[in-house]
Each structure stands twice: as C-alpha cells, then as structure tokens.
Amino acid sequence: MTVSSTMLDGAQDAPSARAAAAVGQASNSIRFDGVTVAYRGTVVLDHLTLEVRPGEILALIGPSGSGKTTALRAVAGFVRPASGRIHIGDVEVTHLPPYARGIGMVVQNYALFPHMRVTENVSFGLRAQGASRDLIADRVRECLRIVGMESYAHRYPRELSGGQQQRVAIARALAIQPRVLLLDEPLSALDAQIRRSMVEELARLHRDLPDLTVLYVTHDQSEALTLADSIAVMRDGRLHAHGPTGPLYQTPPNRFAAEFLGRANLLPVVIEDAGYASPLAQVRIGGLVLSATPNRSLDKGAQALLCVRPHALSLSPRPDHDNVLPTTVHEVLWQGDQHVVTVEVAGTVLRVVSPPLRQPPAIGSTLDLHFAAVDASLLPDEDHP
Ligand SMILES: Nc1ncnc2c1ncn2[C@@H]1O[C@H](COP(=O)(O)OP(=O)(O)OP(=O)(O)O)[C@@H](O)[C@H]1O
User: ABC transporter domain location, by residue (predicted)?
Assistant: First the structure.
C-alpha cells in the first residue's frame, strides 16, 4: 500500500491521465458526500459527509475500528464505496483508479523498497510518470531537503533509523507534487521521543507547503491537537464531531468528543438560564449557581454536563475566574512538572492539573476551585436526554 508501488505503477490510460491532470489543476479540497463502505455486508463507514478544506490538515481520530483508515483508503482508491461520492477539488474521483487521483500517501510502516537507495525510493513515482532526469534530480534534492535527509541520499532503508525511514517515505510521497497528502498513522511505529520531534517536523513541513491538503489519520489526540487545523472524531463508522481544532477542544458537542479529545471533567448540572439573552448561561449544581458558555440546544430545566478541562481549574482565585466550586480533596500526585489533584463534588470526581504546588492541599480537606465561564462548556447529558 505504498504510493510508489500501488498508485503509480503501470501505464495510465488516456481518460485516467486526463482525469489526473484535471485533479492536478482543480483546487485541492477532499470531499466525502454520504460515503458508505461495507465489507461483506457489514457497514464500517456509514454515510460519511466531510470536507477537508484546501491547504488544511484535518485529523481523523477515533478508537480502533472506527473507520478512519477505511475513509482514507476510500480517498486513495483502495476501497470502493457502496454508495456516496468522493471529490478531490472539483473532480469526482470515486471511480478513478488510485494512480489517477493525484495523491501522495504515507503509512505506518514506511513501506520503502528495501533494495533501493533513498534517492531511488524518492524518485520512484517520478520515474513511473516518465519525468526527465533533470526534473527527477531537482525534485529528489528538494524533497530530501524538505525532510532534512539530503545527506542520506545514498543509503539503503536498512541503514536508516525508523524516524529517518519515515522522513524518506514522506519525501517519496511529496516527490510527485500531490495536491493531497494522506497520512495513515505515520508516526505510530516510532518511539515516543522521535514521535514528538516528527510532529514538530510535520508542523514545519505544513508551514513550508501551505497549499498541501492533508488528511491525517491517528488515534493519538495530542498529535491531532498539535498538528491539525480541524479534527473529525469517528465512532463506529460514523462522524461524531467535526470542527476547527481549538473550538472543538474548548466546546465539544458531545461527551464522546469531549473525552476523546483529552481529559474532560464532566459535572452533571441543570440549566437555570440558557443564556439566550446574555453572553453566559447559568447552571445549577445542588444549591450552587455557576456560569458557562451557552449551548443553544439546551433549554432551561434541561439536564446537562458542564465540561471543564483539568488545566482550566485553578486552586487560587484569578480576576477572570468567575466561578468558585467548593470540593473535597481525594488525592494529590506530584509528577515533577505538575501536580494532579483529584477532588470530589456532589458525587462527581474531578481532576485538576496545576503547576507544582509549594504547599499541596491535604487529602480530605476542602478546596475551592476557580474557573472562567469561557472555559466551561455545556453538553447534552445523554443519560438524561
Ligand atoms: N479488508 C477488510 N475486510 C473486512 N473488514 C475490514 C477490512 N478492513 C477493515 N475492516 C473492518 O472495518 C472496520 C474499520 O476498520 P478501519 O481500519 O477503518 O478502522 P480504524 O479506525 O482505522 O482502526 P485502527 O485505529 O485500529 O487502524 C473494522 O471493524 C475492521 O475490522
């Protein structure tokens, strides 16, 4: 499943070549319109409608088996949808063969040709397209420069580390100048430290190539939050949430998205004032009223979940923190660069992440938490619809 072997092998017939040229000319968005994929009658991608806008990185995240790779393979042309349509730019590619779609692809296990040197691996797609020697030399040099691998051009894959092999795989995918780059868990075979530096490199790569549209499949929410302009959350073959990264993290639309995008404290509350006439909603927990960012789908009297991220809860008052929540301390953990304090309020356990504390609170003591209404969003309580 490599870009070189599977997508570029073989001669292109004339209509496919024309379509490929058209894909190259059109704007470089990726659009799924009601795409359904089934394996032996089992639906694994269910009416996916989603757009990756030109030049953005969209991270497709979700648990194992949620359909992320299937969606990406449908764009690549390795999976044929049972229904729905896929466009790259203005061109419908649903029925085009993989090599005619104008895409680059990088998968988890590098998939470099072991018997070819780095240069030959990177130039493979261009050679299959019949590009001139001068063009190939220029492109290979440029792509190896982009991924910082110029000085390894004559090595074989076995002479490279995992991170270096993945850089070569990225250079190979970029060599054909794709409008769209598909990345399927590209970092998951690497150890944690190299993964972090590769995330930074991918962010730099995207700054260097701002027109490149990237569909990035990962199950790692921190990679998605770091790299992506927008995030789509999948579950059981369905799209569960989609939006720009910051707002989606800050105001997730449902419990699954809130918890999949990072640690979320979810406190059951009742809507006291939905906030239609004011910038903030008011919610009640026991005898206490707190303010939060309104959710237009939640009316007065509805049961809801107040969502606050652990680092948005503070142990001391701040001028912009308008909410005070009295709690009881359950546990205090020092983790070097931070303290994690677990507290309880009205039967719900909350997690607070704080910079290291000189005087951590005692277990069993009462502790006021402070937080800003803008850091508190409201979700429907699916257990009490
Ligand atoms: N070729 C296939 N034949 C039959 N079932 C398949 C095939 N490929 C994938 N599936 C099934 O489709 C569902 C979705 O798989 P997919 O690989 O898209 O999930 P994913 O979200 O990418 O998971 P992971 O994070 O584990 O890679 C799974 O239940 C999987 O078992």
Answer: 30-261
